Amino acid sequence: MNKIKYLTSSFLLFCFGHSQHFYSSVDAASAGAFLGGRMGTHAIHTNPALLGVKPGQITEVIPIDTFDISYRVMLATADSEDDLIEMEGRLVRDGFERDYFILEEDTLFSLNAAGFQDSFSAYNFSSNLPSLFSGYKILTDTTWKIIERPKIEFRVQVLATSIKDTLKSFQKNTKAQLKGFETKVLFSDSLYRYFVGLMDTEEDANSLKNSPMIQSISSDAFVVSDTAKVSKKNVPRFSITFPIRIALNVKSNLISADWINSYIDADMVDNPSIKGDLLGSIPNSGMSGYFGLNAGALDMTFGSYGISLLNVDLFSRVNIPKPFTKLIFDGIRFNEPQNISDFDSRLLVVNSTTFSYGTKINIPQVSFPTYVGVGLRYLNGFFSYVDSYEGEIISKPDSVNIFSDLSVAYLDLEQNKIASGFAFDLGFSTSINEKLSAQFSLIGLGGTLSSTETNVWTSTKDIRLSNKDISDIADYNESQIDSISNTFSVLDETKTVEGKSVSVPSRLNIGAGYIFSNNIHFKASIQHLMKTDFIGSVDPRFSIGMELFPEKFYPILFGISFGGISGNTVGAGFGLKLKKFHMNFSGSHSGGIGNSATGFSFSTEMRLYFW
Length: 611
Known about the structure:
The protein is α+β, with helices and mostly antiparallel strands. 18% of the residues lie in helices and 51% in strands. The protein has 3 domains: 2-56 and 237-610, Porin (Beta Barrel); 71-141, Sporulation related repeat (Alpha-Beta Plaits, 2-Layer Sandwich); 151-231, 2-Layer Sandwich (Alpha-Beta Plaits), CATH 3.30.70.
């Protein structure tokens, strides 16, 4: 009965799901656009090259209150707004095109022309106006605003030498005197430069330089300035998935809440047109369902290295032929053979233990930083699939004939039959400038699950019943039913064969990111699940997304995608950054939104970051 159990479990499972995975919550929230996620453990399963990226620095900025002054011309005033509208139309007709607006103050309306950068241009415009507007006035408008400018910091340079031993001796001799002051060594232009202090104003820096202490150390000390830098917390030194991450994806090519609500309570006897609509809604290829699950724990990164001990992927698919659904909803019709040979059912569960490494590479022809990464995956898991199937149902006025020839390949888990194999990852990443980045990766390249022994269950049944047989069977007891069932079986056997293997689909990823501002980041990607005999051909998925407030403790993500197994998808999610503990939550709808959606996904994860 094991073969029946595996086939039945696969069948029930497949009726609800899908298999083009999102590998993190930020990936699901952006509908696949956020390739690489937020670095750290996210890089292991999307692009190992990102492990080579080191924490960078950005210019620190400070807010400044300021204002803009612009000039406008008050052209005319009137008690009626309509009069001013007529004047504005005359100006436009006469060729005086400008940004005009009408302002109401104390029941009096005024016609104004705005947008002059200086009083001369305002006067030049006014002096050429028709005499009707001779009473014009030139006014100033002040707009307050906050701008950001780089923060400047000041230090005092007390030594510059090309000899490192001289630097060390100087540091040792002045250690007691400079106790309590911040010091810094910078090597540039073949010189070791030694700085003292860190001040926000040049005045404070000059006071330190002219102090007796500094003058006793170095009489030719001088003040230097530079823009302040702060470290970017986008690349953790160490990160770990704790305790778990999970992404669930569900998809059907037909079933949605609206579809169910349309037919579940419908009276198809009194309203046969509803039944016709139901049957017409089923695609000619049949009712297909997909299920996908990705779960992981103990993903870790340290510097340029990453390791994932537990990363389970579940791929599944089922197809119920349209003639079979017609039998369910419309019943059996005489002399209309129904071919149900398109039935298919597949299950693949695989865990990958991965070791990854990324590093920066120097290419003379490329001026921007470039990174490359590699990964090795050890795969183990099991599979079950319909190897072949032929089925037909024929109903006549006096009999029913049902033929079924089914062959199912599966691994017997009760006998500890597990398939295994290896796969490889390769990735590249580059930062074209401070705002634009791009990446490319191949994940799971060449992955195959191979088993030394695979069970193949073959079941052939040929059922031929007359109307009298059907009437008699209605009165049979349980033992009689078992007896007659055995007579239907032409072949029922399980063989063990050697050398069965299943190709694990690899993924081609191309991504880009653009930093529009500190609060808005744009993402885009193309992801393609490679064709295999097991899952068939899948269209590429094109995704675009946006992350709001990425540096805050509550980042928000949105995204849409087109193509792929899920078709059109809309995703959203948010994160919570509680110091070193980060949580992400996301969800998406595919094939529609709300009740019209034919698929959905949900993902959550928790990670620890150490900078």
